[in-house]
Amino acid sequence: MARPVIVTGFEPFGGEKSNASWEAVRLLPDEVEGHPIHKIKLPVVFGASGDIVESAIRELEPAAVLSVGEAGGRTCVTPERVAVNRMVARIPDNDGAQPQGDPVVEGGPDAYLSTLPLDDAVSAMSAAGVPSKVSDTAGLYVCNQVMYRVLHAVRSCGLKIPAGFAHVPYTPIQTVRKPERASLSSELSSAGLYSILITSLA
Amino acid sequence: MARPVIVTGFEPFGGEKSNASWEAVRLLPDEVEGHPIHKIKLPVVFGASGDIVESAIRELEPAAVLSVGEAGGRTCVTPERVAVNRMVARIPDNDGAQPQGDPVVEGGPDAYLSTLPLDDAVSAMSAAGVPSKVSDTAGLYVCNQVMYRVLHAVRSCGLKIPAGFAHVPYTPIQTVRKPERASLSSELSSAGLYSILITSLA
Amino acid sequence: MARPVIVTGFEPFGGEKSNASWEAVRLLPDEVEGHPIHKIKLPVVFGASGDIVESAIRELEPAAVLSVGEAGGRTCVTPERVAVNRMVARIPDNDGAQPQGDPVVEGGPDAYLSTLPLDDAVSAMSAAGVPSKVSDTAGLYVCNQVMYRVLHAVRSCGLKIPAGFAHVPYTPIQTVRKPERASLSSELSSAGLYSILITSLA
Amino acid sequence: MARPVIVTGFEPFGGEKSNASWEAVRLLPDEVEGHPIHKIKLPVVFGASGDIVESAIRELEPAAVLSVGEAGGRTCVTPERVAVNRMVARIPDNDGAQPQGDPVVEGGPDAYLSTLPLDDAVSAMSAAGVPSKVSDTAGLYVCNQVMYRVLHAVRSCGLKIPAGFAHVPYTPIQTVRKPERASLSSELSSAGLYSILITSLA
């Protein structure tokens, strides 16, 4: 059997009852291009979320890693270009931590560029009818921290694989109480993630 | 048989290949609460669009009228509060006309308030999982003109019926080439329109 | 001496320490084109604010009326096109009232169009270096109510004068604690109001 | 005499007649905390702009470097957190180049974090009445490239100095023809830059 692909989403946070990232991840099939998809639901907690995904990478030696987060307010699926070695939290994480500028990895490089084929992924999503664009900032909250930890672990393990992060918009149901925010159905977000995986494994 | 309900949508304009309003309208069933739904696709043309809907109102004596338009950039279904007796066009209509401040109806009142139950409609849409809010401006393009003509015709005919207008967002496919704009699936927009009709006929 | 021009601004509300509208109004000179400028600072209170401006109109028989309000989040000076006969408050006014759909004037027309020369005013502001555009909705809070009361009083008194409303953005100091909101200096907002007055009296 | 401080702004681009960054830079005094301010107007050209600022850094061994660019649409002064080793141009630069993903410096690190005291600078600007916040992305156009080149040169020269980049909004006059975009007066933007310099040299 081919090596697995790791795909992560997040548990709810910020008072939400669901997290659009996990809603999209769990709609993915169990396999892509012959690779089993290993799905992990991460806590919205600095440190712990990174530890979990790093352990999985070290253990599974995956063929690709795609971490996914929710970006309330965005209109489309946005693969991220870069993860920055800083943590800044506007609201506490689900464990109460609220870092104000600490590095993700002490002594790590200032940032890592995604190794996903960003432009090809956007082209594939567009062809599939999924609105998308590359994003140049993943923020500095738990999402960016997971992306940094993913790329740091992949680099540390000497893996030469496509790895990175994508944000998905709120689901429509999440915006019923904040109707001025954009949304995208989980089906479309999930289709976008699938296009990213297909493109990455091509 | 009960009197029909008139629901209108628009043909494409502004270089688009489809119009989100018609995509949502055509997904509506053929009947609501025992009333046949009479669907009309209107041209995006000042004057002509208003003439068509006015003729239909005079001829069919409907139980309700809901006109629908596309509001590119909006995030949710927005029933409109008021139609203003002015036409201002940033781009020409599909017949080349581009009024810059003319009244919709010479000598008509400055504006008409919607006679749809706006707050109840938003509550019903929210309960149905459709993001929505009341909008306080329908712009001054063909949409506002149709809404004004609808309310003017209803008033002129002495009909005491719920009548008004709702805007729906772009469909996702429309935003593939402008991914920074919000979208909503036609299924959800259509479900929202159905909630408005149910609420209006209650 | 020529008949006065009435210009109104508002006291602070919503937790703010100042109100951009009054900051702009108080920078206006005491006279324009030979007309004394009669400045009134209105309370952010439904009813009372309208009563005050209506009394002033009845008493002074002005040559023009320009009411001004603050529109947090807007980027430029926006003369308003229409006042709607409805009051809807997202937050209570400074007296605790929070109407949810009541008419401004029981039995009044659905709306009044501004009698200010809107397009000429925008042209004049642009020529003066003040960013501006016509707005198609004044909201339904105290600002819209004042605008409706102004136009209703002017009409009731049989005055044939330019009368209406303009919104101005936050001042820069107001946005220090909400830096993602746009601002405009009081000097520029005031220059914009002056251009509206000049244009209206031409 | 103390070592100079280098401050750069840009020439106009994108069809504009002025560039808000240079308008703000040229209002700075000639000295700050005893350091002469060495102002450079850079071309909006990939490569050449970086070469110019790198030469100045090597030649002058400055006490600090602050490069400044215009961010049309932003509302406040935004010191940038990170420069990324990628160039992506939506529109050609002033020399016709339009890179689509090339590195700024072949073989350079993926990104550099600003060495300016970002949080202190924002506090100082707020205290001075200048709306500001830290930005997490400088885009990938000529601005980001200059920031990367500045930080790369400072690192290469072994200088331990505060160095980085800040974006300023459009000036009001620039927004007269696009009034829905935010602006900030050059005086306030310049005051913000001065606060950044003071904070950096403290």
Plain-language structure description:
Four copies of one chain form a homotetramer. With 202 residues, the first copy, chain A, is α/β, with parallel strands linked by helices. Chain A is globular and about 45 Å long. In chain A, helix 3 (118-127) packs across helix 5. The first copy, chain A, is built from five helices and ten strands. Chain A has one domain: Peptidase C15, pyroglutamyl peptidase I-like (Aminopeptidase, 3-Layer(aba) Sandwich).
Secondary-structure map:
The structure is a homotetramer of 202-residue chains.
Chain A: E1 5-10, H1 20-25, E2 31-32, E3 35-42, H2 48-60, E4 64-70, E5 78-79, E6 82-84, E7 87-88, E8 100-102, E9 111-113, H3 118-127, H4 142-156, E10 163-168, H5 186-201
Parallel strand pairs in A: 1-3, 1-4, 4-10
Antiparallel strand pairs in A: 2-3, 5-10, 6-9, 7-8
Helix pairs in contact in A: 2-4, 3-5
SSE run of chain A:
EHEEHEEEEEEHHEH
Radius of gyration of chain A: 15 Å
Work out the count of structural domains of chain A.
Answer: 1
The chain pair with the largest interface is: A-B, 21 and 21 residues
Q: What is the topology, as strand order, of the major beta sheet of chain A?
A: 2-3-1-4-10-5
Q: How many DSSP-defined strands of chain A?
A: 10
The multimeric state of the shown protein is homotetramer
What's the CATH class label of chain A?
Alpha Beta
Unreliable runs of chain A, pLDDT <50, ≥5 residues? none
Q: CATH H level of chain A: which superfamily?
A: Peptidase C15, pyroglutamyl peptidase I-like
Q: Which structural class do the helices and strands of chain A define?
A: alpha/beta
Function (chains A, B, C, D): Removes 5-oxoproline from various penultimate amino acid residues except L-proline.
EC number (chains A, B, C, D): 3.4.19.3
Subcellular location (chains A, B, C, D): Cytoplasm
Pfam families (chains A, B, C, D): Peptidase_C15
